[in-house]
Amino acid sequence: MHKRGLTEEEIFSYLSLKRGEDTSHDYILSSMCTVPHPVAVKAHNLFMETNLGDPGLFMGTADIEQALILRLGTLFHAPEACGYATSGGTESNIQALRMAKACKKKHRPNVVLPESVHFSFRKACDMLGLDMHTVPLNAEYRMDAGDAAKAIDENTCCIVGVAGTTEYGMIDPIPELGEIAVDHDLFFHVDAAFGGLVIPFLEHHEPFDFLVPGVSSLAVDPHKMGMSTIPAGCLLVREKEMLCALSIDTPYLSVKQEFTLGGTRPGGPVAGALAVLDYLGTDGMEAVVQGCMSNTWRLIEGMETFGFARAVTPDVNVATFNAPKKVPHPWRVSCTRKGHLRIVCMPHVHRDIIEKFIRDIGEHHA
Ligand SMILES: *Cc1c(COP(=O)(O)O)cnc(C)c1O
Questions:
Q1: 88 lines ligand 1 (CB under 6 A)
Q2: How far apart are the C-alpha atoms of 340 and 39, rounded to whole Å?
Q3: Which atom of ligand 1 is the closest one to the Cα of 88?
Q4: What domains can you pick out in the chain, each with its CATH number?
């Protein structure tokens, strides 16, 4: 630290300089985060100093968190679902596996999950001492339910399905996995961190949420397709007892017990998440999602005219290609573990951005 403080001008000229070195969202085609909705920013600013870790002090903010859980629970066909706002999919997935381990006690517990799971499950299993029984994907990059059933043994406590995979945008067969979970008395977690705020607004989709018997918990990230400020995730559970399995005593807070992973938790992104859902309503969310999907189809069509075939036809707005990983500057794309070029058509990736990218790719490879 400096002995004497700097002036605001010095500080902000440095901060602006550094912010200018960040990539502009106009060129970010690789991220599941997006530019927050203006309504989310406004709500976030109003809740800047709130701490959801001490809900007895911030009763209003705590009510907003519960309203967000109710909105999402209702969207996922379980208005009575419980839950809380996490820092994102990673925390939601860690907590889901913690619940599974606590609720289904096994001698040497393991988790059955698809090869396509997000890497946060590796962190979770490492921390919780859970073995990973990884199920390979079928030709469409989905988990095969038959293979999942075969991977279960007497020490399996949990099965995981993904509704909108991070790399390929595919939805696992949640109804079939739900039956398997019920048959084997397993905890069943659905990772809908990305797809949770896409799938309900698609024209056609299979059940993927609490409508499916056997689904125990679900992760969804408002800071992705919910266009909230970062960090905003949510973990929902069908039964409150599941969350209570994580409760520990809190000696000095306004509440006696806590089941969250984080202690101090921001209210701003939570208010932001609720504000966006209420501002847009289902009509507005449908419009956003349908826009992202139509951009996804246009991108696939455009890339295929240059001979860059899709890796798979996605269920949600993630497009993957058999194409060179190098794209013209300053575009930012990503690459899957299997080596496909990957582009996420988030709300900030407008149609004119897609058209500009397709033109650039065409010229680059001409
Ligand atoms: C993004 C994502 C995660 C991780 O979420 P963070 O908010 O980055 O912690 C987990 N699972 C899936 C399917 C995701 O798309």
A1: yes
A2: 35
A3: 7
A4: 22-37+281-364 (3.90.1150.10), 39-277 (3.40.640.10)
pLDDT confidence of residue 21: 97
Of 290, 361, 307, nearest in space to 29 by CA:
361
Mark the ranges of the chain whose per-residue pLDDT is less than 70. none
User: Backbone phi, then psi, for 26, in 5-degree steps?
Assistant: -60, -20
pLDDT (0 to 100) of residue 251: 83
Please tell me the distance from the alpha carbon of residue 309 to that of residue 304, in angstroms, as a whole number. 5
For ligand 1, whether the C-beta of 193 sits within 6 Å is yes
Task: Name the residue among 175, 180, 229, 171 with its Cα closest to residue 199.
Answer: 171
194 C-beta closer than 6 A to ligand 1: yes
Q: Which amino acid is at 96?
A: A
CA distance 68 to 272: 10
CA of 226 to the centre of ligand 1 (A): 13
Residue nearest atom 5 in ligand 1 by C-alpha distance: 89
Return the pLDDT at 254.
79
Q: Is 0.85 surpassed by the pTM of this model?
A: yes
pLDDT value of position 213: 97
- Whether cis (ω within 30° of 0) applies to the bond prior to 55 is no
